[in-house]
Amino acid sequence: MLYLEIVTPEGIAWKSSEVESVTLPTRSGEIQILKGHIPIVTIIEAGEIQVVRGGKQESLAVDKGYARCVSDTVSVLTEAAIEVDNIDLESVEEAKARAVASLEKYKSLRESDPEEIERLESTIRFAIAQQLSKNRKR
């Protein structure tokens, strides 16, 4: 078994010591981690983490971040994470629309704040990841 923890700036979003496999959305494509995987550090893209636990697949939508696998421990550090079953598509769509409108406004300003632009882009990325993950589960 693997130990998996998904950590956001708010704290531990998800963890279990009974994971059979975890599939991560990385820059170079999806990778699956099984017991005994070689040590690895990789960049995570916004997308869906698939976890097999107790023979059942669970999914989480995540924003960009990093993953590290050492021994049989997988740690994911990400800007945001949510279990797919907890996603409210209507709320996600509203948040995405607000972020897109704000981003367009900020980009039109002569002196825009790069940190605010990154925050808005992150909101949009995570909203898209949530939408795709939730729609895939249907």
Structure write-up:
With 138 residues, the protein is of the alpha+beta class. It has 2 helices and 9 strands. Strands 1, 2, 3, 4, 5, 6, 7, 8 and 9 form a 9-stranded mixed sheet that branches. Helix 1 runs antiparallel to helix 2. It is globular, with a radius of gyration of 16 Å. The mean pLDDT is 93.
Summarize the helices and strands and which ones pair or pack.
Elements: E1 2-8, E2 11-26, E3 29-34, E4 40-44, E5 47-53, E6 56-62, E7 65-70, E8 73-78, E9 81-83, H1 89-108, H2 114-137
Parallel strand pairs: 1-8
Antiparallel strand pairs: 1-2, 2-3, 2-5, 4-7, 5-6, 6-9, 7-8
Helix pairs in contact: 1-2
Summarize the structure.
The protein has helices spanning 89-108, 114-137; strands at residues 2-8, 11-26, 29-34, 40-44, 47-53, 56-62, 65-70, 73-78, 81-83. It is α+β, with helices and mostly antiparallel strands and 138 residues long. Produces ATP from ADP in the presence of a proton gradient across the membrane.
